[in-house]
Amino acid sequence: MAPPLTSEGEKASWARLNMDVMEMILEHLTIVDHVRFSNVCKSWRSATIISLRALHAPWLLVSVDQSPLSWGLYTTSNGRRNLVLEIPKEFRSQYCCGSSKGWLIFVPKPPKRFRGYTVHLLNPITGSMINFYPFMHFIIKGVISTSPLAPDFLFAILGSHCMEENISVFLYESGYQSWQDLKIDDPMDIMFHHGRLYVLTGKAKIMVYAFKPHWKVSIIPIPSLFGEEEHHPSSCNGRLVGSNDDIFVVSYDTKLGEQQQLKVFKVRERGLRHHVVEVDSLGGHTFFICSFSEGVSVSKTKSSSKSELMKPDCIYYLSLEDNLRRYCMKRRHTFQVAGLDASGDILEWFTPRFEDRSSLMAVTPSNGSSHSRYLLLAIIIIIIMLACVIRYVLGKLV
């Protein structure tokens, strides 16, 4: 008779589960449970790599009704939207003004500007939530540098103070726990990339803020944004996109209409200087831009003609006609994404950060039933595992 397993031996036996058994288990779990499953040990994490990689393309953040709002996260396949995750009820009627680094930013609708209100940073995968109160700014777009649970967390907003109308960029540093007005003239888009804050202005300039080892501000003009014979307009329009170690600017006409001739500029670093050049290819990458979601770049994948949201060297955006459109860099033409009519919906992008596990154990429950839910989940997983083991053994005997 085999000796009983010790605590360490029991842990080792769970870690040595057959890969086929773990794949059977994963078939019965939700995406959120996939992430929790992958956090148990290295062998369990390796079993979820394939399933999670398939979900790395940006999800659609959609409110199918604008009055009242009703937020949900969707994936796309075969030209259809599939609901992946519902946003908790307490946020569904709130205004979302940011989708950055796997977190969503919610404010009341309409915000109580003169009394102050609470801003919620929500990780929809783990349920973690960070609150800012009292908040005295009107937010157009919010971005974060890393997980809000990290000690070097930075939070930037494009918006205005409740007592003013001028649009500016405000920065929150976790170490100082205060907001600072960067006093930028005519800001248009903001983004954190590798710890730096990039601000695109309507004057065809990029402001770069470096925070380590000390504050440093650089100004990058984009002279090639306009032709030699063109006059400088009072304002340009564009979105920032971070791709690996590079920064791109997607420039468009006054408003994103049905047909667009987009221009793409790449910011290249040459020592301490930056150089901006126009490019005619994304190097096989795919860009996703919208109003308040952070610009997203997806690297080369084995995309097929069936995958409407993974065409290489294309830029996806939502047009004024509320249709999802794809701009092809090679053909210099805009196409409507078939089967994904977004008419009447609010649509943005959300990129889940499965590799960010800093908040997996920091879920802030809304009531006292959190422990019961985790116990129930553990019981369900054990039952599924036992059923899969029995099925596997019977298959071997047959």
TrEMBL record:
Annotated F-box domain ranges read 14-47
Task: Please name the CDD domains in this protein's record.
Answer: F-box_SF (cd09917)
Q: What is the lineage of its organism?
A: Eukaryota, Viridiplantae, Streptophyta, Embryophyta, Tracheophyta
**Cited SUPFAM superfamilies:** F-box domain
What species is given as this protein's source?
A: Musa acuminata subsp. malaccensis (Wild banana)
- Protein name (database record): (wild Malaysian banana) hypothetical protein
Q: Do you know which PANTHER family this protein is assigned to?
A: OS06G0707300 PROTEIN (PTHR44259:SF114), OS07G0183000 PROTEIN-RELATED (PTHR44259)
State the source organism's domain of life.
Eukaryota
Q: Which UniProt keywords apply?
A: Membrane, Transmembrane, Transmembrane helix
InterPro entries xref list: F-box-like_dom_sf, F-box_BR-signaling, F-box_dom, KIB1-4_b-propeller
- Transmembrane stretches, by residue range? 374-394
Q: Name one Pfam family in it.
A: F-box
Q: Which residues does the UniProt record annotate as the domain KIB1-4 beta-propeller?
A: 84-322
